[in-house]
Specification:
mainly alpha; globular; 73% helix
């Protein structure tokens, strides 16, 4: 699943028109992955790997979504 998830994350980052669209699409994908039984640590590890090759803007989006996964956000945004 990690490889499949990684490719989906990259696709979203590259295809989304705006920062908000990318953020929302990533949150939706990760929310589904968590509901399907993926471990938070595995998701975070995958996103951490993607950060290494991401542009600055893409990295900022990944970090914002990672905050939602670990709970460093408002209660309404937590995954």
């Amino acid at each position: 699943m990690a490889e499949d998830l990684s490719s989906k994350l990259v696709q979203i980052l590259q295809a989304s028109g705006t920062r908000e669209e990318a953020f929302c699409a990533l949150r939706t994908l990760l929310s589904k992955a968590l509901r399907d039984g993926e471990e938070r640590e595995a998701l975070l590890g995958t996103m951490e790997e993607l950060r290494k090759s991401a542009s600055d803007d893409q990295e900022d989006i990944l970090l914002d979504v990672m905050d939602c996964v670990v709970g460093w956000c408002g209660p309404h945004a937590k995954l």
